Amino acid sequence: MNNHWASKFYNLAKSKGIKCNIARLSNGWIETINFVGKEYFTKSATYDLSRRQFFQGVDPSKLNESGVFVLICGGKRNILSDIFIIPWDVFFETLKKGKPINTYKPPKEYFQYKFYLRDRDDAWLMSVQGGDRPRLDVSQWHYSVAKALDFLNSV
């Protein structure tokens, strides 16, 4: 099931009066949102209940861009439930320690950095496939939907 969690979060923020606009779409999915004058690279991810994790990919070209935050909007059981607002530099420094992998079957090629956000014993850990398999504790940047909206109002 494809859920556009970022669209749901964006619409909720807009309905709460938070100044925001969609800066870029990619294949119908929100890629960048501007919240109160700050750029947020944005991803939607659905939670895998059996593995207790979100899984997503990022195009390597994103490492050449800049912004303030990475916004990952996640859902469980068809409900928007988890928001990660990770500082841009921290997220991408961790990502580039991994290695982009081909996500298509040969002879086609499309490389992405694949990463997980795993719920482990009251901590959220980001890990990246390939390379030296970096890990980062992202618990401090994990929010409920309500707390994420408060964060956006306070920045």
What does this protein look like?
This protein has helices at residues 5-15, 88-95, 145-154, and strands spanning 20-26, 29-35, 38-46, 53-58, 69-76, 79-87, 101-102, 111-120, 123-128, 135-137, 142-143. With 155 residues, it is α+β, with helices and mostly antiparallel strands. The chain has one domain (5-154). The strands form two sheets. Strands 1-2-3-5-6-11 form a six-stranded mixed β-sheet. It starts with a helix and ends with a helix. The relative contact order is 0.17. The mean pLDDT is 93.
Task: Estimate the strand proportion.
Answer: 35-45%
Number of domains: 1
Radius of gyration: 15 Å
Low-confidence stretches: none
**Average pLDDT rating:** 93
Number of strands: 11
Strands of the biggest beta sheet: in what spatial order? 1-2-3-5-6-11
Shape: globular
Distance between the termini: 33 Å
Count up the helices: 3
Strand count, sense and barrel status of the largest sheet are:
6 strands, mixed
Structural class: alpha+beta
Helix content class = 10-25%
